[in-house]
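Note to self: user wants both folds in one dump. Writing first protein now.
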Amino acid sequence: MKTFKRLATAVLIAAMLFSSVMVMPAEAATRLSTPSNCRFVKWQSKTMTYAEVGWNSVSKANAYQAVISWADNTNKKYFNTSDTSITFTGLAVNRVYKVRVKALKVNSEGTITLTSPWSSAAYIIPAPPAKSVAAESIENHTVRLQWYGVSGSNGYDVYLTTNPRGNWHYSLSTSSAKSTTVILKKYRSSKFKTYQNYYYRIISKRWVNSRYINSPIPSPSYYAGYFYFY
């Protein structure tokens, strides 16, 4: 019986040592700091199909790996770069994308020797395509706006102006990706005037960390269309 106990104890100690040896390389492979400030930088095209995402550099890292996916974490694609930004091309105009990045240290033989944890997510949130937005006069100087939804968004903000190169004014919001119709009755608390152009833009938004976020528009004067009454 004593021999059996000693044998069992020896086997248990060996198993513990083996487990420790197996864990150490994984722990050693996450010594780099997590890239901070992973963020949407700008659109690289007016069609919102090319977008740049950037992050802060990490000490001792000489490469980075970025993963882009749909907002629900499906359809992942991985990219490697030595820069602290990357431009994604061929993006769908009706879908929100999520991007994360991790830092790497790669030796001269191309082997990854150190990595970091994945960063927090940056989101690429396109506005509904301008060609999908329709304005329809219904009655009494009232307009119905309709557009195609953006999958992965959590609603939309509608802005109006009489000068697309001037100041834009918030009009109203919707609260889900499928809420793609609004009724506009006023501009800045006043009824719409006859023979006045009213320009509109629709901004997609997503609820992240207890607040709404969005991606900036391609240019300050961007608008999806305009309407007027006569």
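First done. Writing the second protein, which came from a different request thread.
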Amino acid sequence: PTSHAFTRRLVLRVLCQGGAVGVNSRVPGCDTARELLMENIQLIRPTLYAATPAFWQGLASDFEEERLRCAASLGEAAEDQVLRGAALERLRRRLVLGNRVQGIITGGAPTEPSLRRLLADWFRVPVVDGYASTETGTIAVDGVVPRRVSVVLLPPPGSPEAVPGGAERGEICVCSATVCSGYLGDPAGTGARFVEHRGRRYFRTGDLGERRADGTVAVLERLSSAFKLAQGEFVYPDRLEAAL
């Protein structure tokens, strides 16, 4: 979405380097919005495509449908790897992104590793998972936090500080030179989203994250989507929605 700071930076960078930017038409309430988007992509034939996981998940659904068609034509006894390869080849012939794409960026929400692997196999190009917010700027790229950015994971109310296996889990909080000072005219909102930690001021992203053994940070869920069960356990439905 053009309201995202990342999108605006990406557009400016492309234009400053002499590139062109295609803007998709939008028809409010149109049931064929996705079909219209795909038609526009065919016309623009982008070399770099950035979208949210929801868009890429739609393509993953296309892949699953194509895999089932291959199973019907090749027979249920065909190995899954054969079906996967046949489905990907059929989709490549459809030139889904115009057959000129050199890189894919996904961001704006957690991206499942299986979806990233599918995109890499499908388009045979690098797939970059970006994580940022309008209030902070870039937080991590492929889970790697830049040196100029400090990320701490603070436990949200009712959640444990750590999970089994040695992984650190909590709300992702960010401190860097690019973090905003607050919300103009909204002291209550500013107070709710900023926290002091070890003498530094951090922005609460509202995202549940996990620091892996290799030091990378993975975004798991939006804390705002959580609900509490009768026994006091918090459940985060985002992954269930993605699976469905």
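Dump finished. Worth passing along: The chain has two domains: 5-129, 135-242.
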